[in-house]
Amino acid sequence: MKNFLSNYKSTIILLVAIIVGAIVGIIFQEKATILSPFGDLFLNLLLVIIIPLIFLTITTSIAKMKTPKRLGKIMITIICVFLLTSLVAVLIGFISTYSIKLVDTEDGEKIRASLEENVEEENTEEDITILDRTVSLLTVNDFNKLLSKDNIVALLVASVIFGLAINKTGEKAKPLTDILESANEVLKNVVKIIMYYAPIGLGCYFAALVGSFGSIIVVGYLKTFVIYTIVAITYYFIMYTIYAFIAGGIKGIKLFWKNVFPSTVTSLATCSSAASIPVNVEVTKKMGVPDDIAETTIPLGMSFHKDGSIIGSVFKIMFLVCLFGTSLATPEEILGVLGVALLANLLITGVPIGGGTISEMLIITMMGYPVTALPILTIIATIIDAPATMLNVVGDTVSSMMVTRVVDGKEWIDNK
């Protein structure tokens, strides 16, 4: 019992704080939003260190790799794992919603009427091509823009290139590598210091989150939220258990469920994949995933691998399908929904709570819906944010195990 309390003390404290926050939110409802600044303080502290954390972890991880072959194998494996699990997610999202009417016609008319006055504010997207969007996603036109959390994908690309350059330079780059490694260690301790405030910050954040939902969810949104939550919980327990088994058999399942709880709690409480990176990297390493794989897969997964967001994109599309009476009678129409959901997800960057507007505009444009639908998708994104973020974060965790299985062989778990 003493060992249990010693190993899980921080997790228990965090869980108690989250439960207390939820209770406060339920009791005081919207009045609980007065605690929001205390939660924002914790989230801001984490988000401030995300940029240097991503740069240092990816750059030093790649720079320390002794053989380029391992780096290439890791990157190729990450891409394959992300692609396969994303395909599974989009299929499950579609199967879960195909025979369910997420919103009735009468409810749809009320929703549209209630949001028409906000359309002009929300419609600020420029009419640019998908290729232009891709370029702006992967690169920026000024160095200082790499320091913004709004350009995390561009930062990932720059970090990989910089790490490769250090690796290619060899011994001459060793002084720089030592400095970056030292800075990375310091940053890890910064994370530990910030986490002392986690119980208070997460408790207050969750109280405000729960308290703010009660008065804004109408019937159609509530139905969407309930169904999505059921799908997310089912996916969480079944699919991630299967993935853990693929990665390491029965031992992999035990190792995964023994360690994944902190990542789950942090993602649910913060609703931010970016803010969950420090905890998720630590959890993944406890599962026996090597540093170079953990420190590459988790940050990359934050932007490019989002099981929860992919399923959420399908829900958004199917909500609009019900709302506007769109036909899904042919295989081409069904494949169109799946393709748009995948493509829209690829354009979601690792931004904090909210965001996803580019993805939602892409859905509207490619599916041929009016711009008035944008606020509808924004509300759906908000109400499913917590379970979606949970799947996004934990999906990266189990993916790192599968990447390790391919890169280090089936005996990796025994060499832990």
Question: How is the secondary structure organized here?
Answer:
Blueprint (H helix, E strand, L loop, with lengths): L1 H27 L7 H29 L3 H30 L7 H11 L3 H4 L7 H9 L13 H18 L4 H22 L2 H16 L5 H41 L1 H10 L6 H10 L4 H14 L2 H18 L6 H16 L10 H11 L6 H10 L1 H24 L8
Helix pairs in contact: 1-9, 1-11, 2-7, 2-8, 2-9, 2-13, 3-13, 3-14, 3-15, 3-18, 10-18, 11-18, 12-13, 12-18, 13-18, 14-15, 14-18, 15-16
Describe this structure in words.
The chain has helices spanning 2-28, 36-64, 68-97, 105-115, 119-122, 130-138, 152-169, 174-195, 198-213, 219-259, 261-270, 277-286, 291-304, 307-324, 331-346, 357-367, 374-383, 385-408. It is mainly α. It has one domain: Proton glutamate symport protein. Helix 1 packs parallel to helix 9 (198-213). The longest helix is centred in the middle third of the chain and has 41 residues, at 219-259. It is globular and about 65 Å long. Mean pLDDT is 80; it is low at 114-126 and 349-355.
